[in-house]
TrEMBL record:
Similarity comment: Belongs to the SRR1 family.
GO cellular component: cytoplasm; nucleus
Organism of origin: Trapa natans (Water chestnut)
Matching InterPro entries: SRR1-like (IPR012942), SRR1L (IPR040044)
Residues covered by the SRR1-like domain: 94-257
Protein name: SRR1-like domain-containing protein
Length: 271
């Protein structure tokens, strides 16, 4: 089972995360900064590891093959192609032929399987749907080697830590698997107008679950006012986990769309 914790972090009961596994290089410790200032970013390390890049790239490609033939993937593609969900993507696209994908908070693709599975899904979606454009990726914990792997798989790494506050000017799918509530909140806060929200599709932790958790445990509210407000009007479609292999990577995830809110009905939120 999974549940949002008191700080809005997504928790799953299972093997402890963050424990370096044997044989895996320990990552430099990067403390998450307060999600406020935008700043330029480069990976902390500067290690050249062409062999590691090749090995990890192959590992992700193999995982993509495994995912592509899974029941989970087929169910997810069916969900996206369902007229109700697809209609939401079409509304986000408007008159554009493509929406770009921004991947925030993917985690360490070298150290953990869930981030690799999440990345595999993003790459498979781009490959399958012609309406998905370029993929941009940012996570402050990425190593130089991981950045090179992502680039070799066709992604562009952002050199600015936007703290999730990207001002959305064109249709964009934000792929934010299991990010912290603050990051979703920053994104929504930066785009808190009906005109901007309608250009956003968001894959991430279920806003509905945040809402339920806030009713039980008010402490999440401070960092997630926009998330909780958006939960009231978002069209949310929960991702169905049809096999245990994908549980850790995708539990409690949903597609969210915000195009149905009218400017006049958008609540004012003062932080
Ligand atoms: C709870 S972890 C989830 C990691 C991975 N998606 C998973 O499910 O295992 C949240 C991730 O968000 C990243 N993060 C923190 N601040 C960020 C920012 N400003 N922009 C993008 N990612 C950020 C963290 O480094 C961390 O990897």
């Amino acid at each position: 089972m999974a549940a949002p914790g008191s700080n809005g972090e997504w928790m799953v009961v299972g093997p402890r995360r963050g424990m370096p596994r044997r044989g895996i290089r320990e990552k430099p410790m990067v403390r998450a900064k307060a999600l406020e200032e935008r700043e330029s970013w480069t990976p902390i390390d500067s290690e050249n590891d062409p062999e590691g890049v090749l090995k990890l790239t192959c590992k992700v490609e193999l995982l993509m093959k495994k995912m592509e033939s899974s029941l989970f993937y087929h169910a997810l593609m069916k969900q996206i192609e369902d007229p109700e969900v697809f209609g939401c993507f079409i509304r986000v696209l408007g008159s554009s032929s493509q929406m770009q994908m921004v991947v925030y908070g993917i985690g360490s693709i070298e150290s953990y399987e869930p981030p690799r599975l999440q990345l595999s899904l993003a790459l498979l979606m781009k490959r399958k749907f012609s309406w998905i454009g370029d993929i941009e990726v940012f996570d402050p914990i990425l190593s130089k080697m991981e950045c090179e792997v992502l680039e070799s798989l066709g992604c562009r790494i952002l050199s600015i830590n936007e703290q999730g506050r990207r001002n959305v000017l064109k249709p964009t799918l934000f792929f934010m698997p299991h990010c912290e509530a603050d990051l979703y909140n920053n994104l929504l806060q930066a785009n808190w107008s009906a005109d901007s929200l309608k250009r956003i599709a968001l894959f991430g932790n279920s806003f509905h679950t945040y809402k339920l958790a806030s009713e039980l445990n008010g402490s999440i509210v401070q960092s997630a006012k926009h998330v909780l407000a958006a939960a009231e009007f978002a069209d949310e479609f929960k991702v169905e986990i049809v096999s245990d292999d994908f549980l850790r990577a995708f539990h409690d995830s949903s597609w969210h769309f915000f195009g149905s809110v009218l400017e006049s009905k958008l609540p004012s939120i003062f932080s």
